[in-house]
Design a protein that fits this description.
The protein is 71% helix and 0% strand. It is mostly helical. It has a domain of 61 residues. Helix 1 runs parallel beside helix 6 and helix 6 packs across helix 7. The longest helix has 48 residues. The chain is elongated, with a radius of gyration of 39 Å.
Length: 213
């Protein structure tokens, strides 16, 4: 965190944002007013209070939350005995380690950045796996591209999606189409056709009753 802070807010400006964008007045059309302060389309400026306010609230909470006895406060609700507190010397050790890291980052990235470059060159064997995050992303990407994607294409797409899901949908569509073709033979829309069907049904029912007797 100290390295990020020092590289961002200390030392010479190393970006090209201001160089890539001329002042607004230089390329604004005649009669048009540029951005305020003339810092171009993407000038660097402080964040608005809509962003600073939540950051201050989070920072304040991070400072004071350690003084709240949270385990003892929630113990009656969860009915679990709160653990014993840490040793009294532990906060001082943790603070000392943080200050040591702050001092080391200042020395490497502000006071003597050439030492950081020399140290990075001498520890290249350690630096590479750390910068590559222990090559986890490379292994994960290779596994996904060679195992997950081909397997999902063959199993999930061709068999489950195209075979089962699309097969069920298409089969229901074919069943509905076949049933509608059969039913529409008696749904002519003509009254005489309905009367003929009713007459035929009555004759068939009467003939069945006469045959039974």
């Amino acid at each position: 965190m100290s390295r990020m802070m020092f590289l961002t807010f200390f030392g010479e400006y190393r970006g090209d944002l201001e160089k890539a964008h001329a002042p607004a007045d230089a390329h604004a059309p005649a009669g048009a007013s540029g951005h305020a302060d003339g810092h171009g389309h993407a000038g660097i400026h402080e964040s608005p209070w809509s962003m600073l306010g939540p950051l201050f609230a989070l920072a304040f909470g991070s400072i004071v939350v350690g003084y709240l006895h949270v385990p003892q406060f929630i113990q009656p609700a969860i009915r679990v005995e709160a653990p014993e507190g840490h040793h009294g010397w532990l906060p001082f050790v943790a603070t000392g380690v943080a200050l040591l890291g702050l001092f080391a980052a200042y020395q490497l990235y502000v006071a003597a950045p050439q030492k950081q470059r020399e140290l990075s060159h001498s520890l290249a064997g350690v630096r590479r796996p750390l910068e590559a995050k222990y090559f986890f992303d490379d292994v994960y990407g290779a596994f996904v591209s060679r195992v997950v994607i081909p397997g999902s294409r063959e199993l999930l797409w061709k068999r489950v999606d195209a075979g089962v899901i699309d097969g069920f949908v298409n089969a229901s569509g074919r069943f509905t189409d076949g049933a509608s073709r059969a039913v529409r033979l008696v749904q002519l829309g003509f009254v005489r056709g309905y009367a003929l069907v009713m007459l035929g049904g009555a004759v068939a029912l009467l003939g069945y009753l006469l045959w039974r007797h």
